[in-house]
Write a structure and sequence with these properties.
Radius of gyration: 18 Å
Shape: elongated
Helix content: over 70%
Number of helices: 6
Oligomer: single chain
Order of helices and strands: HHHHHH
Length: 149
Amino acid sequence: MTNHRQERRTLAAVYAGLVLTGLVAITPYADRATTHLLADHIRAGYPAYDQARVDSAVTAYLLLLTVVGVLGVLAWLGTAWAVRTDKPWARPAATVLFVLGAGVALAGLLTRDTSGDTGLPPALGWAGTVPCLAGAVVLTQLWRRPRTA
């Protein structure tokens, strides 16, 4: 397989991760407009909260998840640029970004709040891990391809 073909496959995985990150970033907004999983999760964990406090907590989560999503999109764009321009530091940088992204995803999935339940409902927590699959593919492809001088 030629180096050019490997680069295209790697870039395809990077762009898949970018799209997945974008979709995950808008998922809480779609939830707020439709199923209200996050609001119901907060309400179940804090039954004494009135609607205004639940709405405030949802807004705080939306802000936090938006910042994480924007940072994720920027990380994918930076990785795409590094791979496309064949930067010698693309592999270690992608590895660090993967570890950071997976850490954030696992924190969203597993971190418990003061109610004793996870901060995010399981569906949103698991959704946050999906871009990590693309990240694992990118790393596999980056570390398998020969380094250029």
